[in-house]
Design brief:
The protein is mainly alpha-helical. It has four helices and no strands. It has helices at 28-43, 46-60, 63-73, 76-84. Helix 2 runs antiparallel to helix 3 (63-73). It is flat.
């Protein structure tokens, strides 16, 4: 339906032309659930790794293999937190919050501060 000054388009969300939302980002809740799931999956390898180290030591009586398995499991919590806190990658059309290019360091675009008049009251 076209209103005053507005034109109807194919993407306006009418019943004849439903709005296309396949490009919409996941909700914050869905992103959080996915991050919790990744964290849980990564951390679920830690206890079995420690049990595998104990089992390996009891079977082969070689401490080096067990220490290697434990050494691999030590950074798992750190890796799990880093991966769980990572946000989805930015889209190409998503605006960037900061501009780090060489043009961001030019001072020509920064407006100068105008001197203000201050009234002094003697007392």
């Amino acid at each position: 339906m076209a209103g005053a000054g507005f034109q109807a388009s194919e993407n306006d969300g009418t019943w004849r032309h439903p709005a296309v939302i396949t490009q919409a980002a996941d909700s914050v809740e869905a992103q959080h659930r996915a991050r919790v799931k990744r964290y849980t999956i990564i951390m679920s390898f830690r206890i079995p790794a420690l049990l595998l180290a104990a089992l390996t030591y009891s079977m082969f009586e070689n401490a080096w293999i067990s220490v290697a398995i434990i050494a691999v499991s030590i950074p798992l919590p750190w890796v799990a937190v880093l991966i769980a806190n990572d946000r989805p990658p930015r889209r190409k059309n998503e605006p960037r919050p900061y501009n780090y290019g060489p043009e961001s360091f030019t001072r020509t675009e920064v407006p100068a501060i105008e001197p203000a008049r201050h009234t002094v009251i003697d007392g």
